[in-house]
């Protein structure tokens, strides 16, 4: 079965001067224009191609990789607005993605960069975008454990902190006390489940909590010391940015961890940095 709006592995069934035709199953043959066709491809071979409907609602193919496929989120720029909705750059030269007015949480304007979820509209069969994420999230019970590592996508900034999408399935919140480094809408990063409240809302953190946090960082510090010949130019006086760049952790956690490693006799600390014993 072909997945429209996603990358498929398709067989070349015909060649022409202007490209090749790919077997798109129940959708017939999809043209892959010459500019996107590998120069040495032959009939019977397979290519990885993205399938979509062109402006005339015909099946089409490209080897370009879209910013987001169906079922994914992506940061896109609004290229234009008309009486139907807003059109955003999708990463496909021949096709912009429509975000209908009914799928806009707030009115969009040309030049704006927004986070978009891509899906197939069941009524029309068209691939469209939306900025209304609630109907796609929290549709299943959250089965997370404290300190579980998860994939995060920063989706919104609010007075409370940053709202993030967890594993593409649930909403979570990063409060200012758990934020370090630079965060922005559209950023993807690893995070940890801090806890699930009685109302089902999920609190997040960018590092493990409690003893597990320090144990995890201890291992990372010792591993990097081994790789760097036993010395790192970092200590408790280093800047938060330098520490974050090396270990993606806060300065406070780093200071506590190297203090613990020092007490255990695993490192020494000097004005120049830390050294492996």
TrEMBL record:
Signal peptide: none annotated. This is S1 motif domain-containing protein. One of its GO terms (molecular function) is nucleic acid binding. It comes from Vibrio palustris. Residues 3-64, 69-132, 145-207 form the S1 motif domain. Pfam families: S1_2, WHD_CvfB. The lineage of its organism: Bacteria, Pseudomonadati, Pseudomonadota, Gammaproteobacteria, Vibrionales. InterPro entries: CvfB_fam, CvfB_S1_st, CvfB_WH, NA-bd_OB-fold, S1_domain, WH-like_DNA-bd_sf. Belongs to the CvfB family.
């Amino acid at each position: 079965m072909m997945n429209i709006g996603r990358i498929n592995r398709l067989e070349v069934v015909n060649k022409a001067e202007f490209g090749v035709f790919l077997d798109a199953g129940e959708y017939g043959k999809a043209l892959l224009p010459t500019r996107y066709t590998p120069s040495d491809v032959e009939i019977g071979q397979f290519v990885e191609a993205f399938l979509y409907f062109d402006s005339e609602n015909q099946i089409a193919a490209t080897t370009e990789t879209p910013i987001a496929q169906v079922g994914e989120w992506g940061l896109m720029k609004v290229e234009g607005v008309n009486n139907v909705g807003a059109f955003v750059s999708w990463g496909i030269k021949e096709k912009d993605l429509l975000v209908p007015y009914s799928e806009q949480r707030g009115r969009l304007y040309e030049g704006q960069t927004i986070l978009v979820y891509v899906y197939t509209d069941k009524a029309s069969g068209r691939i469209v975008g939306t900025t209304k994420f609630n109907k796609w999230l929290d549709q299943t019970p959250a089965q997370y454990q404290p300190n579980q590592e998860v994939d995060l996508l920063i989706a919104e900034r609010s007075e409370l902190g940053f709202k993030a999408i967890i594993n593409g399935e649930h909403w979570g919140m990063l409060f200012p006390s758990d934020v370090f480094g630079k965060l922005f809408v559209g950023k993807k990063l690893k995070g940890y489940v801090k806890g699930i409240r009685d109302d089902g809302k999920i609190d997040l953190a960018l590092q493990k909590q409690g003893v597990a946090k320090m144990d995890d960082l201890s291992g990372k510090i010792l591993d990097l010391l081994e790789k760097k010949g036993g010395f790192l130019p970092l200590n408790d006086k280093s800047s938060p940015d330098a520490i974050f760049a090396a270990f993606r952790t806060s300065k406070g956690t780093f200071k506590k961890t190297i203090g613990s490693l020092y007490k255990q006799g695993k490192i020494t600390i000097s004005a120049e940095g830390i050294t492996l014993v």
